[in-house]
Each structure stands twice: as C-alpha cells, then as structure tokens.
Amino acid sequence: MATRSFLFLLGSSRADGNTETLARLAAEQLPADAGQRWLHLRDLPLPDFEDLRHADGEHLPPTGHAATLLEATLAATDVVIASPLYWYSVSTSTKRYLDHWSGWLRLPGVDFKQRMAGKTLWGVTALADSDPAVAEPLAGTLRISGQYLGMRWGGVLLGNGSKPGDVLSDTAALTRAKTFFS
Questions:
Q1: Whose CB among 56, 127, 133, 159 lies 3.0–4.6 Å from 167's, allowing a Cys bridge?
Q2: What is the CATH number of the domain that holds 99?
C-alpha cells in the first residue's frame, strides 16, 4: 500500500481549541510513515468565492493562499476537515474553502474532480451540546461534498467541549480518537 499523506485543515477561529486538540490526538495514532501537513485556514484567508461558471473568459489559476490550499489538497491522500461546530455546520473559513472547490473544478488542466476521486475525506469537530445529532448538518456537508467528487467518506470524530481543553474530559471521544484513522 502506498504511503498516506494527511492534510489537516483547521477551521477554528482560535488556536489550540478543542477541535484541533482532538484532531492532534487522533493523528498521534497514524503510522510513522504517514505524512501530515497542518494548515490553519485562519492563517490562509480566502476571498469570498465568486461563481464564474457561466461567465465568459478564461478561468485563471488561483494565486496566493488559494494556490497553497489547492496544491496541498491535491497532494494529500486523506483530507481532514477539523472544524468546530458553528451554528450546526462548519466554520466560515471551512465553508469558504469548500466553496472554492467549485472554482477548482473548472480550472483548465487541473482535473480537480478526477484527482480528488479515491481520496478519503474525514471530519473532526467539537461541539458544546451533549446531543451528537446536532452535528449531522456538518457531517452531511462533508460527506456529500466528498461523495460528489468520488471521495471515500472516513466519518466524523465528535468530541464535546466549549472552553479550550474541555474535550480532554470527553473520555469516549478520546477513546474513538485512538482508532479513528484506522
């Protein structure tokens, strides 16, 4: 089996939050030869997505942060969206990143959809609610987005926590983290 390369996209508005903590605990269990790249979306802000599907003219390749994120996304075998649950879905920076997938689908020579097919999409989230069902919109957003591109769905790792460090008290989430990427 080829070596796996994980891209962890951190969508929290704060550093070292519960979602990132949970993702890092799960990543500790990856094989030593699995590559890991960690990118904070707050450090790579994207402009609002502009839908140019029906506009005349050439679709230009991305530059700046968008180019960095496109390159990192295509280079990974596994894409991990680590976004806290904000209003029952992904964070704004995460949603903006996913919106840019639409533009990347139309870039000449990139073959985004074909190159994403077969990769695995994962989700990691922390929520401040005891009912895991409130995270279903987030999980559905990720699962269906990946499905559209022919990606495998790895699932979503849920942890409970509000203030930083709370997730470390969620023993069930810590146990799931140990085998999440298996």
A1: 159
A2: 3.40.50.360
Of the CA atoms within 13 Å of residue 25, those in its CB half-sphere come to 27
Structural domain for 57, as ranges? 5-177
Q: Is residue 182 part of a domain?
A: no
Under a CB-based contact definition with an 8 Å cutoff, are residues 27 and 181 in contact?
yes
Residue 118 belongs to some domain of the structure: yes
Of 110, 124, 106, the closest CA to residue 161 belongs to 124
Question: Angle 125-40-104 (CA atoms, 0-180°, nearest 5)?
Answer: 95
Tally of domains within the chain: 1
Residue 39 lies in a domain: yes
Helix, strand and coil in the chain, % to nearest 5: 40, 20, 40
> Each residue's pLDDT tens digit in the chain (182 positions)?
569 999 999 999 999 999 999 999 999 999 999 999 999 999 999 998 887 776 766 678 899 999 999 999 999 999 999 999 999 999 999 999 999 999 999 899 999 999 999 999 999 999 999 999 999 999 999 999 999 999 999 999 999 999 999 999 999 999 999 999 99
